[in-house]
Amino acid sequence: MTAESNAVNLADGLDGLAAGTAAPAFVGLGALLLTLLPSPSPAPLAVFCCCMAGACCGFLAHNHHKAQMFMGDTGSLALGGALGAAAVAGGASALLPALVVTSLFAWEALSVMIQVIYFKYTKKKFGAGRRFFLMAPFHHHLELRGMAEVSIAKLFYGIAVGLAALGSWLATTL
């Protein structure tokens, strides 16, 4: 849960990115919980996930580019904690599909780890640290490569929707 919380916090670097990617993750997590858990036990957890998705969408109305309001650490850490808690509450059978649903956040955290490890390794080997990405987390790398902030957000939204669908489908095949 801590890793998920920090991963969502890392994704909160562009206007609307954390809320816009968390909303489909919550919907996907709610859908897979309805699929995996016996009735009626998943209903409250699925309702919680859908309420969190709705809250993200409502917040996105004020946080899209050019943001009028910022989420900050308190909001992004809470979103990540809620995603992690819902996945854990879903039991062992929900963990793999939940990992798929939230793998965009895992990639953001992994990109930071790759950057730090590579920098330390090259500093030790060559005397000066080199960077694997132009900047970490990965969405900042794309920004420095010349991609517009809005385009990055839309790309990540699409990926989040695709991962939510994939995780929900995976839950039906287990």
Quick structural overview:
The protein has 8 helices and no strands. Helix content is 78%, strand content 0%.
Strand content: under 5%
Biggest sheet, in brief? none
Shape designation: globular
- In helices, the fraction of residues equals over 70%
Average pLDDT rating: 93
**What does the radius of gyration come to?**
17 Å
Distance between the termini: 23 Å
Helix/strand order, N-terminal first: HHHHHHHH
**Tally of separate helices:** 8
Structural class: mainly alpha
Number of strands: 0
Low-confidence stretches: none
Question: Can you describe this structure?
Answer:
- The protein has 174 residues and is mainly α.
- 78% of the residues lie in helices and 0% in strands.
- It has 8 helices and no strands.
- It has helices at 2-11, 17-36, 42-63, 72-89, 92-101, 103-126, 138-144, 149-173.
- Helix 5 runs antiparallel to helix 8.
- The longest helix is centred in the C-terminal third of the chain and has 25 residues, at 149-173.
- It starts with a helix and ends with a helix.
